[in-house]
Amino acid sequence: MVEFVYSNVEKEMESYGFDAVTHSHCRMCHGGCGVLVYTKDGKVAKIAGDPESPIGHGTLCSKGLASAQLAYHPDRLLHPVKRVGAKGSGKWQRISWDEALDTIAEKMNGYREKFGAESVVLGYGTGRENEAAIYRFANLFGTPNVLTAGHLCYGPRISTGIITCGSNPIVDYENKPKCVMAWGNNLVIANSDEYKGEDLSVCLDSGSKLIVVDPRLTRLAARADIWLQLRPGTDAALALGMLNHIISEKLYDRDFVDNYVHGWEPFVARVREYPVDRVAEITWVPAEKIRAAAQLFATTKPGGIQWGVAIEQQINCADNNRLLLALMGITGNIDRQGGQVLFKTPKINNVGKFGAHDQLSPEQIEKRLGGERFRLAGHFAIVNPKCVWDAVVTEQPYPVKMLFFISSNPVMTRANANAVYEALEKVEFMAVADFFITPTAELADIVLPAATWLEMDYIGDFWKRHGYILPRRKVVEIGECRSDHEMLNDLAHRVGQGEHWWDDFEQGLDYILEPMGIKWQEFKKMKYARGEVSYEKHKTRGFSTPTKKFELYSTLLEKWGYDPLPIYREPVESPVSTPALYADYPLILVTGARSPGYFHTENHQLPHLRELQPDPFLEIHPDTARKLGISNGDWVLIESPRGHVRQRAKLFGGIDPRVVGAQHAWWYPDKNVKGQGWNESNINVLTEDSYESCDPAMGANSVRTLLCRISRDPEQRGRGQAAS
């Protein structure tokens, strides 16, 4: 627990005439960076990085710097509204919070009485750190269906980490790993989850070795000692090949393997099925580079693996994660200082307890959509989205009558966007809480005005695994906007959950902090709190798994009927698995490359961020573009068997000529048309969501690895500048 030390803040205030400064923590992406918010005349006047922050250390990205543009945007929703007329009509009527919440509560209670609580589905996206409150509400209401991004983003790391070693291992950048392997993660752009790019950059500046696994020449790949440019979707094969070399050359940590691993012999047998030369053919990575990378990582200690969602948005999602965990484990880098640490949070009522997961009855848990098919996901209360869309459209296995999306825009972010749109058009009642009337909100019956991070008190990074919790302090109040936590606390009283909630949500923050023996008013005066830091805990306690060991052979997956050992599956669409389709769609499409200014569907309205990138672009190798008659900056049509969209061509030599790379979640809030261009450039119009294409245990959609064809758009319509 650390008190604030004020440095040059007073001088800054005096120089620019600011009235006050608030120390807080940003939440424009996955959050955590410390900020100084300067105000004048009751409005945010400047935002800067806080040099005393343990996360960010004074650095701040373009999104954080643009926070005030979001808060004060002229198109921002500032009061509740209800739809007038048909869905998508664009006609709204202002209503009070009481009318909005009373209507939502009446609908929820009515559907629960007539169709069962499971007929109501709550959902959230990247979140405003509202996950625990949403699960608390859902579990107490009785619905097992909470629709998240967790089937293909972060949830797989948590779930596979828990079944393998008891938690999610985090790279200990504070103690400078000597080798970092960045796998499917462009950290200096993405700033994902527990991590910020500044930590990795400082680590590399100190001399750490870098291995990058990515089909694209990212900034990190350009800086790497070894860049493994794999065929998209073959990550599991590559990891198995690296493990094969490490085991064959006896580069593994024998003490760890002999004393702390479960399933070593069957695991070795599985790995031997993937000799390096075979893996080189599968992945397009030369065998000598695979061996060199495996050698470097296994012999340069301590080391860590910086992993990201790219490995999770594939049919190999769970096994990709398990194989990277195996690489961490057998090289002796698990829970090692400077390696991959199992950090502990402070003594708080954590996300699991706050989420009231023990309050959902076994009978209702059995009704979780997709729970029997995707049992690893179901075990962690995660739902595959297609299961929800199908239940809306077909009413099987039971009808879903109401959707309530909080900080989520699934029309843009979920696979097979046309199917998503169809389900949202059909559902009987839908409520949305967001900053703007998004393409998803256009289809809602009621839209609630959500508060930004500048407008709420909360305990930041409450859900993460790096061991910190951070006070997020309310700076301003804008319109009638309310935090998701306050809104749910109020709604809970209206649906009969009042005894489990509070008179106001500050008491909920007190509840989280209760085991620490402090209240929110005390915590908000502190800089942060951090859990006890210790290493190699398995030497005295074992791991928190059924066998108390690091499970290379998963006893839980075996119990649920899955292969207990990781394996490589060829992508559902590929030159190998679907050669006939490949003849018609001769390019491999990767999606989801991050932009500095955008966070999934967010920020396209903000002038400073839109200026950084006015249009979506498709990365194409110059040789491929030349053959197709495409020039840099041309609008191109991208087609898959599901449909077509258009993005600008960006000629890029850092991608294989057989591969193209598209951006995701693009819409046009500046276009005054129905749907705001939701299907014009949205790459999820092209992506697949069939059950057969999903990871069999986790339900992750294969949105990163598809087949496509491209051509120059003959109309060349549209605004914006050429990609550069």
Structural summary, described in words:
The structure is a single chain. By secondary structure, this protein is an alpha/beta fold. It folds into 3 domains: 81-151 and 354-530, Rossmann fold (3-Layer(aba) Sandwich); 166-343, Dimethylsulfoxide Reductase, domain 2 (3-Layer(aba) Sandwich), CATH 3.40.228; 579-712, Barwin-like endoglucanases. 31% of the residues lie in helices and 16% in strands. The chain is built from 29 helices and 27 strands. A 7-stranded mixed β-sheet has the order 5-4-17-16-15-6-7, with helices on one face. A 6-stranded mixed barrel has the order 22-26-23-25-24-27. Helix 9 links the parallel strand 10 and strand 11 (226-228). The longest helix is centred in the first third of the chain and has 19 residues, at 97-115. It is globular. The two termini are 46 Å apart.
Any idea what the shape is?
globular
Largest sheet strand order: 5-4-17-16-15-6-7
Strand content: 15-25%
Q: What percentage of residues falls in helices of 4 or more residues?
A: 25-40%
Number of structurally distinct domains: 3
Question: What is the CA-based Rg, rounded?
Answer: 25 Å
Poorly predicted runs of 5 or more residues:
1-7, 719-724
Distance between the termini: 46 Å
Helix vs. strand class: alpha/beta
Separate helix tally: 29
Mean pLDDT: 94
CATH architectural label of the largest domain: 3-Layer(aba) Sandwich
- Can you summarize the main beta sheet? 7 strands, mixed
Strand tally is 27
CATH structural class of the largest domain: Alpha Beta
CATH topology name of the largest domain: Rossmann fold
